[in-house]
Amino acid sequence: MLDSEDEEVQCRTVKIAIVGEPSTGKSSLCYRYLGGNVVAGGGTQGAEVMAGQCLDLRPPVPLQLCDVAGNALATRMLSNYLFASDIILLVYDLTNLQSFEKLSIWLIKVKEIFENDVQKPLMALFGNKSDLEHQRAIRLSCVQKFASEHLMENFKGSARTGEMVNNLFTTLVARVLGIKVQRLPPVIMNGRSPLPKDPERNGHTPLSLQGISSQSLIMNRKALRKVQRKASSSILIEKYTENVRFCIICNYLGKIIPALQSRCTRFRFAPLQQTQIVPRLKEIAEAEGVKISEDGVKALLALSGGDMRKVLNTLQSTWLAYRDVTEDNVYTCVGHPLRSDINKILHWLLNENDFAVCFKHIQDLKIAKGLALGDILTEVHTIIQRVKLPPEVLISLLIKMADSEARLASGCSERIELAALIASFQVARDQVKMDASVS
Ligand SMILES: Nc1nc2c(ncn2[C@@H]2O[C@H](COP(=O)(O)OP(=O)(O)OP(=O)(O)O)[C@@H](O)[C@H]2O)c(=O)[nH]1
Ligand SMILES: [Mg+2]
To answer: Locate the Replication factor C C-terminal domain: which residues (predicted)?
Structure first.
């Protein structure tokens, strides 16, 4: 009679049958797990049964590995080889598409054999030769689909490097016996050991070829352009998606090719709040010894539109050009109209009765400061809304300004549009005067 649960586990020998097409590395996998090297080839005859122990479980679990030859599929012996197996491991070669496609025939055969058994074996899929990942011939999505369709655990590794081999057997044996794996088995590769397993990945720890767990690759525009130039960039990403998390940072989603977009989860970020920008901006200015005034900060915030990169670029350019980051310097540096200039323009627009004089003043200022009418319109637009005007006057003024901006954008002359702007302000003032005289 058994004294403890431990002893009960110890007495049970777990039988694992390894099946799959010839030359997929089944024998190599068994030898690697039991402490040997990859076999030189030659092929197994019939089936080879090996005894071993799963030392990564406590207490160690006795194992019986049945290495079935690839050409046993067509023989009547297959059912004998698989008899009383607890685990059926279907092995395919990552670099050989046929070895994966033929697995469905293996699966049908295996299911036929165990059709009448009450206790069905645990099925798992193993993609071998991951050291030849660059020669991968099977899409990851196909493998995942196949595994989920047949409710199988899906692993990938290499009998040559030992990647995932210990993990594979330990996870499967623990699953069959209903034991929790306390500790990850050490996969010794280049003297490194893997990082802890992510339980949500169905027992599959994504180890990179070097034995390092998930890496992140953050790409900028230049790096991405290089990847995009390759027609197979999406395949490249798919290929390494098990060990690498790709993070693409961009301003314009439209510039990413659809093939890449469809493989990404998109995160959009709203413009930053002023309270988020100011502390960081001040910290950088202090660390870099940049003199920045309060109105300089406000000007940077106004021009950035919540984009921290714009804030820092403008800060850097202003400092390089003037050494002092003040409001005027910031606006002059980016060629944006100064607030004082806009105030002058607004003053002429709202108070100058002589059309020709008003036109001359604004035109001269435009030429002297190199201002674009589009920028003037944008600034006037924000300020005019704060001026107390009757709603209908403000509405017609805004419509006329919008029309002017549209015409400018389509290439109309700046002089004509400036005249139109002055005229619309004159009309608005006349309307206000008329309303005042009526009331
Ligand atoms: N690059 C690489 N080669 C491997 C790996 N595993 C096995 N091989 C090679 O693949 C060839 C076939 O390996 P075997 O282990 O004999 O294949 P098998 O599946 O047992 O073949 P059969 O017994 O005929 O069914 C050998 O030349 C091995 O050296 C691996 O992980 N990576
Ligand atoms: Mg073999």
So the answer is: 337-424
Residue 183, Ramachandran bin (φ over 0: left; ψ between -120 and 50: alpha; else beta): beta
Which atom of ligand 1 approaches the CA of 22 most closely?
25
The rounded Cα 268 to chain-centroid distance in angstroms is 12
User: Quick one: which of 67, 58, 289 has its CA closest to 177?
Assistant: 58
CB of 44 closer than 6 angstroms to any ligand 1 atom: yes
| Contacts of residue 295, Cβ cutoff 8 Å, sequence gap at least 6 | 326, 327
Q: Which ligand is nearest to the CA of 165?
A: 1
Reference 164, options 186, 179, 145, 136; nearest CA is 186
Is the C-beta atom of 154 inside 6 A of ligand 1? no
Question: 129: Cβ below 6 Å to ligand 1?
Answer: yes
One-letter amino acid at 207 equals L
Whole-structure pTM value: 0.48
Closest of 274, 264, 277, 346 to residue 308, by C-alpha: 277
Ligand 1 pocket: which of 19, 26, 38 to mutate (most atoms within 8 A of CB): 38
Strands 324-325 and 291-292: parallel
Instruction: Name the pLDDT band for 396 (thresholds 50, 70, 90).
Output: very high
SS (H, E, C) 192-256: ECCCCCCHHHCCCCCECCCCCECEEEEECHHHHHHHHHCCCHHHHHHHHCCCEEEEECCCCHHHC
pLDDT band at 417 (very low <50, low <70, confident <90, very high): very high
Q: Is the pLDDT of residue 207 over 80?
A: no
What is the rounded CA–CA span in Å between residue 250 and residue 397? 38
69 Cβ below 6 A of ligand 1 = yes
Residue 242 Cα, ligand 1 centroid: separation in angstroms? 23
CA 11, CA 13: separation in Å to the nearest integer? Answer: 6
Compute the distance between CA of residue 283 and CA of residue 308 in angstroms, rounded to an integer: 13
In angstroms, the CA 46 to CA 142 distance is: 30
The response to whether residue 94 sits with its C-beta less than 6 Å from ligand 1 reads: no
**Region of residue 213 (left: phi > 0; alpha: psi -120 to 50; beta: else):** beta
